[in-house]
Amino acid sequence: MRVVVSIGGSVLAPKLDPGRVEGYAGAIESLAREGCELGAVVGGGGIAREYIGAARDLGANEVQLDQIGIDVTRINARLLIAALGDRVDPTPAHDYDEAGDAIRRGDITVMGGVMPGQTTDAVAAALAEYVNADLLVYATSVDGVYDADPRTNDGAEKFAELTPTELVDIIAPMSRDAGSSAPVDLLAAKLIERAGMRTIVLDGEDPDRVEAAVLRGDHAGTDIVPAGSGGEPTYWTQR
Ligand code: UTP
Description:
Strand order of the largest sheet: 3-2-1-4-6-7-5
Number of domains: 1
Mean pLDDT: 93
Bound molecules: uridine 5'-triphosphate
Radius of gyration: 17 Å
Distance between the termini: 12 Å
Number of strands: 7
Largest sheet: 7 strands, mixed
Oligomer: single chain
Low-confidence stretches: none
CATH superfamily: Acetylglutamate kinase-like
Order of helices and strands: EHHEHHHEHEEHHEHEH
Shape: globular
CATH class: Alpha Beta
């Protein structure tokens, strides 16, 4: 089974904590031992926000701020690489070709951002499409896709399952709000829709949840299931 795991920066590195990174490396190594081919996409987290805030105060423009964000995601990628064993490509992939080559060689690949104007949510969706992944998992700081922001709406309801088109329809109005509460950004949702990519959005606080979701489809988040995709990945039913 080929899997792309997007690890939000706020999940992997809300602040520098080797224990958290080690926990994720353990989950990824364990998935690789189970026979998964893996790409991990890592976000920038609190450290990126601090750098971007400082650079904004210094007068940097939005593209320059994105470039700083990308650099931090790549540093976080190096952190995860440092915690992974020798089955990982030692260099963060700078584009989808490099990531795809590493996966074809049998390495785990880790990458951060690739270009200004987007976030690593979109990178993960594009990588999943590029390497023809069976599954894309977003390990985020919210535990699924809701019909409203659960942090500000007590009555917000979580979706157990959505089609990619429904995901786009839910995310689109959320993305227009300042300080968007969307669990994945709109570009990522559109790429998921275009590719018809089977996707899970879950709470990434505990990396074991990612393992259970990938290996058995067990999770408490939201399944994004393309219409007419014929149910669950065969990998789950064979286990
Ligand atoms: P993240 O993917 O972590 O952004 O990339 P985010 O969603 O804002 O962060 P979290 O998950 O909520 O913590 C960090 C920053 O890097 C730049 C953007 O500025 C982004 O906000 N970036 C990242 C890009 O410009 N292009 C990319 O491909 C990736």
